[in-house]
Design brief:
Order of helices and strands: EHEEEEEHHEHEHEEEHH
Shape: globular
Distance between the termini: 29 Å
Strand content: 15-25%
Strand order of the largest sheet: 5-2-1-6-7-11-10
Number of helices: 7
Radius of gyration: 15 Å
Structural class: alpha/beta
Helix content: 25-40%
Number of strands: 11
Length: 200
């Protein structure tokens, strides 16, 4: 059965925050070589209007918030997220999707959006090292960890900044399928997987 991986994209999203997980999951499907694709990976925008990532990369969302496949694994990347934090429809959508998804994960400052949606309450999380203090200040109920690549809280997983999303996504491949596939995917990507699994 194919697992549906939905990645939210928005204006000023950090390119590697969404492209890293996208590459990991699509590569894992290629490496898996099953008759049925292991993962179907797609992007979701607030609407179908093209978004402009940081540094100007233009991306056309595959789907909108109002019309997309069911999501098994939701990825919320970071970037400049102040505008997204002010969008109640986006925050409510993240909350709704996380209640149905098997795993909801954030990369970098995407953790702020998870926190705003209320799904990190009482949990541990991490974000980019530059944003640790702000995450603690804005959401004092969180146990914010630093110096780790990702924090696994079961249904909620968060990673540190930018390239750490690749490490986290390989960890998610291991969780959703098996360790051997995660290792083979990292090898195919020629990526030195940092496996410093912190305890939640």
């Amino acid at each position: 059965m194919t697992m549906q991986v939905g990645i939210y994209i928005f204006d000023n999203v950090e390119v590697l925050d969404f492209a890293g997980p996208y590459e990991v999951f699509t590569c894992a499907s290629r490496v898996n070589r099953g008759e049925t694709p292991l993962f179907n990976v797609f992007t979701v925008g607030e609407s179908l209007t093209p978004v402009h990532a940081r540094a100007g990369l233009k991306i056309d969302p595959d789907f909108s918030l109002a019309d997309h496949p069911d999501i098994d694994c939701l990825i919320i990347p970071g970037g400049l997220i102040n505008a997204e934090l002010d969008k109640q429809n986006v925050i409510e959508w993240i909350c709704q999707q996380s209640s149905k998804a098997k795993i909801t994960a954030s990369v970098c400052t995407g953790a702020f959006l998870l926190a705003a949606a209320g799904i990190l309450e009482g949990k541990s999380a991490t974000t980019h090292w530059e944003d640790i203090a702000d995450l603690r200040a804005m959401f004092p109920q969180l146990a914010v960890k630093e110096g780790v690549r990702w924090v696994d809280e079961g249904a909620i997983v968060s990673s540190a900044g930018i390239s750490a999303g690749i490490d986290m996504s390989l960890h998610l491949v291991e969780r959703l399928k098996e360790r051997d596939l995660a290792l083979r995917t990292a090898k195919q990507l020629e990526f030195d997987w940092t496996e410093n699994k912190p305890s939640a």
